[in-house]
User: Which sequence fits this backbone?
């Protein structure tokens, strides 16, 4: 992979492969960092409401938005510091709100010396269900919850993203597709 630092934001629905691919991409760099926004948001303990509880209450967006926005702001500050230190940064974050996308883009646009890439990993609903079942028990991720989030992502405007179809592909095949794009556009 190119030795010049880059910023890569990887978005997609539940179980689309964001975290696994971002982690592998970071590991493939001489100086790569993976930032998982879900982990950073989960650092918050007091006042944090688990996603499953919000889903049961019927509210998965408005109650989570302030925590999600705070995590995005923390991550963008971390990205800036890592880039200045010469690292490439690979972020995995499920983004289905235009306000969050705007926060990322505004922050990254202030970093003029690096290329920025915005990837959206797109899988069909059946594949997402299979991937969720492979990594968790059905009680943890109900079909209705997965369908709900899949619908949010289906409504999300992907016109400014590089969409990578992942249905039927292995994790390595997805990573190779992204690496080829990064190598040709960096």
Assistant:
């Amino acid at each position: 992979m190119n030795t010049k630092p880059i910023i890569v934001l990887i978005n997609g629905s539940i179980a689309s492969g964001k975290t696994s691919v971002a982690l592998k991409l970071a590991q493939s760099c001489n100086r790569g960092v993976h930032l998982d926004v879900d982990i950073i948001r989960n650092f918050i303990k007091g006042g944090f409401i688990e996603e499953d509880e919000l889903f049961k209450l019927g509210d998965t967006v408005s109650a989570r938005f302030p925590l999600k926005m705070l995590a995005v702001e923390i991550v963008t500050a971390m990205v800036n510091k890592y880039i200045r230190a010469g690292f490439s940064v690979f972020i995995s974050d499920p983004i289905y709100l235009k306000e969050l996308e705007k926060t990322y883009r505004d922050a990254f646009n202030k970093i003029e010396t690096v290329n920025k890439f915005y990837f959206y990993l797109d899988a069909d609903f059946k594949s997402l269900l299979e991937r969720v079942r492979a990594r968790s028990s059905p009680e943890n991720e109900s079909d209705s919850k997965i369908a709900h989030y899949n619908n949010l992502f289906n409504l999300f405007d992907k016109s400014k993203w590089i969409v990578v179809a992942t249905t039927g592909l292995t994790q390595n095949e997805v990573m190779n597709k992204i690496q080829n794009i990064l190598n040709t556009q960096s």
Residues 65-84 form the longest helix (20 residues). The beta strands are 6-12, 32-36, 88-92, 115-122, 162-165. The longest strand covers residues 115-122.
